[in-house]
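Support case: (R)-mevalonate complex. Customer-provided input:
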Amino acid sequence: MKTHMPNTISGFSKLSKSEKIEWLLETYFTEKDNARALVERYWNADDKLQKLHDEFIENTISNYYLPLGIAPNFLINDSTLAIPMAIEESSVVAAASKAAKFWLQRGGFKAKVLSTEKIGQVHFIYQGDTKKLEAFFKHVKPKLLSDTASITQSMERRGGGILDIKLRNKSADLPNYYQLHATFETMDAMGANFINTCLEQFAATFKSEALLYEAFNDQEKAINIVMSILSNYVPECLVHAEVSCKIEDLKSKDIPHPMEFAQKFKQAVDIAKVEPYRAVTHNKGIMNGIDAVVLATGNDFRAIEAGVHAYAAKDGTYTSLTHCSIENGIFKFWIEIPLALGTVGGLTSIHPLVKFALEMLQKPTAKALMQIVAVAGLAQNFGAVKSLTTTGIQEGHMKMHLMNILNQFEATETEKSQLIAHFKTNVVSHSSVVEAIENLRQ
Ligand code: MEV
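Agent response - structure generated as follows:
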């Protein structure tokens, strides 16, 4: 029986953009003209650019802007970079810039890529003798590789390709469950398409060759491929970034007592190591920096988030991604995280602002981008933990938030400068800002 549910539509994707918008307005909006005007106000006047964005996804009706900010003065190894950050949260870019400047005067950030291996798996069900499956895998492995030769050719020319394929017996965890666990080197590409294409070919070859394998009985021949997909968990695609200096060199306007600061800072990091409630927020602050750069450089921040958090829990308890030591009078603060990033393919050559961001970063290789992103995360965490253990974050945060409240009340430029001056010496809270606006407007 076919019933028509209210507010549903079939064939939506086939409608033109304006038909989609009209359907949406008719179905869900009362102030249709206002809603239509808003959606259209966010269109780009350049039709070609708009079409490009429309075609990134399906059913596009408009653009959703995020600010693109710049955090300059990042000394990373021997380069000084301005880092692009796409993020909506006030004070993130300011904190990154401040941390960059702080460490610029103390030797800068040192970063190093430790490994670059990516992973993909073919998950399958096999009902039969494991020894026979192992023998079959040995027999079919050369064919798995030769059948993907045309896929891997250009990646191999660039120095990458398939590193290895292993058979894994997971039947102790789930009855009859096995995997082909493959490792890849994808050079400057994030590699998702390359890996998934290889995996689907492995699956096809594996299944068809099983049917021909004489030692298998009928049940064993009927290997059931469940899925073939890369893993966003990449614990062997690791980057390390650090800062260090003599404790007395930490002294600055905000840090009058460097030893006291260093000890409290280390305590805060150690708390995040043992207390998951704190670790999640601590790492969230790291991801403020990481996601913003990942997004600005056209990479997949969901993949990065998933992989990084899995890494934070790799030893069975969710813990801090950063570490701190005080030894022989030296303060050292570092991060070690998995980052599967690309600087070719995907959005990197299509989105004009991504190209701009990569050019700003001096067209980095994927390895160089891993270092930059890890540094952004470390700097962000340094800024957050420094504020938390000294002034608290609300002071800086509310100063930045002041602008959001002023915009919410549509303050004029004159009102803004008067109120910013007023709040230089007064505590910012939502109610205090509202009160100050009202007083000013009376
Ligand atoms: C806010 O976006 C991030 C912080 O909460 C991070 C932290 O607590 O370390 C400030």
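The mean pLDDT is 96.

Case will auto-close in a few days if no follow-up is received.
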